[in-house]
Amino acid sequence: MWREIGDRETGKIRPNLFANRIKWNRIERLQLSDHKEIVTPHRGSINSLQVDLTEGRYLLSGASDASAAVFDVQRPTDYEGGGVIAKHNCIFSVDKQHEGGHRYAISSAIWYPVDTGLFITGSYDHHINVWDTNTTQVVMNFKMPGKVYKIAMSSLATSHMLIAAGTEDVQVRLCDIASGAFAHTLSGHRDGVMAVEWSTSSEWVLVTGGCDGAIRFWDIRRAGCFLVLDQSQSQLGRRPPILERFATNKVSISKSFLTSPSSFTKARPPKKLANGNGLKQSPIGKIPAKGPTRQRLHPGMLSSQDRATAHYGAVTGLKVTEDGMYLLSAGSDSRLRLWDVESGCNTLVNYETVRLQTSKPIQLATTQNSALVFVPCMTTMKAFDVWSGKTSLTFSGHYESVNCCWFNFHDQELYTGGNDRQILIWSPSRLVSDEVEEGFTQDQDHWSD
To answer: What are the distances in angstroms from CA 111 to CA 59, 187, 311, 425?
Structure first.
């Protein structure tokens, strides 16, 4: 720590690199917190966790006893052990007895991405509720055709306020908060949809994973999906950065110009037909005049015929990296895969032995630079290196299976929830303030006592 501070003072380290090193040092020392504790009111398994995206302060949880609760992870409500352990009781909670509350398990709970004035819950009672945080009242309700497995909202959206809902029905539904109605449905899956995730690079792109083992990419502005991932389509290696690829392409073009300038000559005009008209290419989606009778479909309609699968079982979890270039997927086949979004190929990263739940969705989390991915592996949490697949950290603290996790970028803390009804906090083993105080005491002389 002191070495990094000295290098920063002398200008050897740039500010961004210094901040990244400090954050990485804190992540490497994550362990079960001995100074913070969350006291949950839930009487069922914790299925969903999310910290608000604006302040990074309020933790929202959803549980199988049909309750949802909000905690302030920065300001404790009480202290224990002589002020050593900070207790974080819930600010408020809603349950079955609450007016408009869910009747069955809450499978997914998310914050409204713009502010903390609203939060949304999806339940096995076939309903999605939009709650006013200040009044704890349901301000909007959407009736779904089946159990709600997962809901998501885009953190980038400026043109829409859509809730993507994955249910046991084969269709993905988009619920519009602005109008209180369904915007439209996305058809293509052949079984229920357990995972939905918005792209981190485009507000219009949605990724869904179904019980049919398929992962589909949708542009919500048009019908049909435009990409279906196939586990047999693979590529090795990590894609180079955009600037590096641009420079490589530029060099290759200049070399080709020097070696074969004929490639830059004027293109030949199309051949003439007997009637004097130029050769006309058939547009996409129309049957060509000659040749095979197979109809060329619009890319948006390929989802009805494409039966490629990304996993041999149900897709139970999805997570897009921060730059939007890669997608992590987890399946009931106990496989974790990394996909290149641009090519749609499986990168063949071999993640070390994982054992995942098969009966319910799981929630994945990544660090801010997407270097580590946190995966619930039965009763433990594991942190894998995204690019090598090796296990970096293992967190053992829950007595039963872990269902969800959330990594707080602001404090470099990890929150996990499981079937044991507990929400555990994993913090750096020693805070920066403690190290500073220790360094100060070590520099003291005998007269400072």
So the answer is: 9, 26, 29, 20
* DSSP assigned state of 99: T
The dihedral region occupied by 28, where left means phi > 0, alpha psi between -120 and 50, and beta the remainder, is: alpha
Nearest to 103 by CA among 119, 123, 84, 75: 123
What single letter denotes the amino acid at residue 264? F
CB 378 within 8 A of CB 401: yes
Q: What is the pLDDT of residues 263-273, one digit of tens each?
A: 434 444 444 44
Per-residue confidence band for 240, with pLDDT thresholds at 50, 70 and 90: low
- pLDDT band, very low/low/confident/very high, at 359 (cuts 50, 70, 90): confident
SS3 category, 247: helix
CB 65 within 8 Å of CB 42: yes
Q: Which of 216, 215, 234 is nearest to 225 (CA)?
A: 216
Q: What is the pLDDT of residues 176-235, one digit of tens each?
A: 999 989 888 999 999 999 999 999 999 999 999 999 999 999 999 988 899 999 999 988
pLDDT digits (tens, 9 = 90+) for 285-319: 333 444 443 444 444 445 444 788 999 999 999 99
Edge-first strand listing for the sheet containing 137-143: 106-111, 118-123, 127-132, 137-143
190-204, pLDDT tens digit by residue?
999 999 999 999 999
Q: Is 380 helix (H, G, I), strand (E, B) or coil?
A: strand
433: exposed, middle or buried (Cβ count in 10 Å: 0-12, 13-18, 19+): exposed
| Nearest-angstrom CA–CA distance, 6 and 15 | 13
C-alpha angle 299-302-308 in degrees, rounded to nearest 5: 125
How far is Cα 212 from Cα 305, in angstroms, rounded to an integer? Answer: 14
Q: Which of 67, 56, 120 is nearest to 93 (CA)?
A: 67
Question: To which H or E segment does residue 340 belong?
Answer: strand 336-340
Instruction: Please say whether the beta carbons of 324 and 201 come within 8 A.
Output: yes
- Give CA separation, 391 vs 341, 353, 377, 381, 424, in Å: 24, 9, 12, 11, 20
